[in-house]
Known about the structure:
Structural class: alpha/beta
Strand order of the largest sheet: 4-3-5-2-1-6-10-11-9
Oligomer: single chain
CATH architecture: 3-Layer(aba) Sandwich
Amino acid sequence: xxxxxxxxxFGRVLLKLSGEALLGEKTFGIDRAFTxxxxxxxxxxxxxxxxxxxxxxxxxxxxxxxxxxxxxDRVSADHMGMLATVINALALQDALxxxxxxxxxxxxxxxxxxxxxxxxRRAIRHLEKQRVVIFAGGTGxxxxxxxxxxxxxxxxxxxxxxxxxTKVDGIYDADPMKNPRAKKFDRLTYFEVLQRGxxxxxxxxxxxxxxxxxxxxxxxxxxxxxxxxxxxxxxxxTIVRGVDNVH
Length: 247
């Protein structure tokens, strides 16, 4: 007799992936092997019955505030960054569908030949039909990061939590890659993140989550099985939430 599958603690989640996450072992572009690994991680929670949405950044190709964009008009540079997120969304969609997961890409910038236009009710319907929904094109507006897009979309589709995959296993008071004495936090309030200037998500994104009491878990993207552990209630990474729920 097979072991009973543990029910997920969240019914609908939004996964925030930086563009750099798709780099894998590369210095530029998309590492197909790592994208396939991400697809398997997403599939592992999708089969539990959790509805999954995702927002992918574009930093592995182009960022509006990167060195490459210095001297450019900010609006033009940000539009280029938005287009980079569409490339990444299509790469993740391809990996997911090869893993047997039905997927839809919805873009805030209309380009009907490659993605559906973002319509909130359509996105929710896709999720209800157990399709993974990837939001591309950021918010569709310059001066807003994909962190802010993740917070906005999570609230629009009524996700219960944002899961932010990073290169480290939570939030630290300094960069643990550079400072071996950096202290890891198990839990934080939104205000503490803003007050300490911790680089979790940008201030606009954190403020949106704070105003709407949307929790965030920051976890190690590269540790296999972390997503599933979170959905099964294990303590993974660092959780950011309101002061009434933090302890």
